[in-house]
Amino acid sequence: MSDQILHQLQESAQLALNSQSVQEGVQHLSRAFTLFSEEAIRLKNAYAKLQERFQTVNQELGLKVAELQRLTHYLNNILTHISDAILFINLDGTVSLINSAAQKLLKVKPEGVLFRKFWDSFADDAFGFAMRESLKFGIAHRLIYRNEMEISTTFIYEGAKLYHGMIVVLRDMSEKQRLQLVANRNDRMKELGEIAATVAHEIRNPLGGIRGYASLLYRDLSHNPGLQEMASYIIEGTKSLETIVNAILHYSKPIQIQPQTVDMGEFLRQVGKFVKVDPAFPANVKLSLHIPETPLLAPVDPGALKSALLNLIFNAFQAMSRGGQLAISLFQREAKCQIDVSDTGVGIAPDLLVHLFSPFFTTKKMGNGLGLVEAQKIVQAHFGTIDVRSQVDVGTTFTITLPLKR
Ligand code: ADP
Ligand code: MG
Known about the structure:
The protein has twelve helices and twelve strands. The chain has 406 residues and is of the alpha+beta class. The chain has four domains: 3-78; 82-172, Beta-Lactamase; 182-252; 260-403, Histidine kinase-like ATPase, C-terminal domain (Heat Shock Protein 90, 2-Layer Sandwich), CATH 3.30.565. The strands form three sheets. The protein has a five-stranded antiparallel beta sheet with strand order 2-1-5-4-3. Strands 7-9-10-12-11 form a five-stranded mixed beta sheet. α1 (3-18) packs antiparallel against α2 (22-81). It binds adenosine-5'-diphosphate (ADP) and magnesium ion. Adenosine-5'-diphosphate binds at residues 311, 315-316, 319, 343, 345-346, 348, 356, 361-364, 367-373, 396. Magnesium ion (MG) binds next to α10.
């Protein structure tokens, strides 16, 4: 109630009190009452307006809070799922953030590190020391730690002092080195492949000649069985050389795949059916398929991938000459699918495992040692990987990992 109105009201009340007649008193009182009710209405309106305004502000605030929550959630998601390991350390050394990649890389649990001083958790190693120096002098740096980790630090001095600190980004060098090794190996394999292809090509022509002349000799030596037998050895020899030369030429040719969207579960069921009707399917082997309910779609060339799988499956049969179980399983692994081909066969000794994907490595009398190389080539053409785990006399599992359709 404004002062002016209050004053007028007091004045009317006073006049009513001082009035000489009842009529005059009533007149003053009724004026006071009118003033009062007018003011009450004005106040009521003002209150309603205020309430309205309050509601809008409240709504806006709600939206802003929701937006802020969404943004926080989004940023947290990025931080959690980023493959780089990230820590945030306040200027006093308190760790206020450690994402899951960092927990994994540093082999720590968040509850043991978070909101504690950095040096309590990483006191005595060079890593802790380096970070402490960095914090002390406020110098951002980049270093390689124990050939395993690349550490880079950045300082943040923006916003409230509470938020000043150091961002530490750690990168797993072993993974980088492993990739580098694979890349080098691939380069070398490519070069070797080119050399092998040239050599094979150069051998093929004279080999054809040798075989031709040996065949002529064989024909003309029919009267001399002893010499004819020698000629037949030459022919046999050239035949096996030809097989090798053809294999090399085939191996060194880059493969072309034509990917299409394939339901991997359905695809594996088809492969299973195909294998079961094959006359080479051993009666003493039990084949089982393990396929998840939800369809997994992947861009693959079904013909090529089937041939890669058949190589693994027939190796498995050959490893179980006394019978056993062959399991083909499909799993989803984040944005990838994983196919396991497991057998309960003879297994592979650890010292042989390293030679497994080398061309011509075989332990079989009639083997050519190109099945796994071919399978690997096909899988790599799909941007996938192939791995093996094995235990002698227990069994072997080959694992193919392929990217799923985005
Ligand atoms: P090949 O079958 O002609 O020998 P591969 O490249 O298919 O050539 O396989 C190479 C070698 O790897 C085999 O000779 C065998 O020693 C080993 N191997 C492959 N798969 C298996 C398996 N499932 N169990 C045991 N050994 C295996
Ligand atoms: Mg084979």
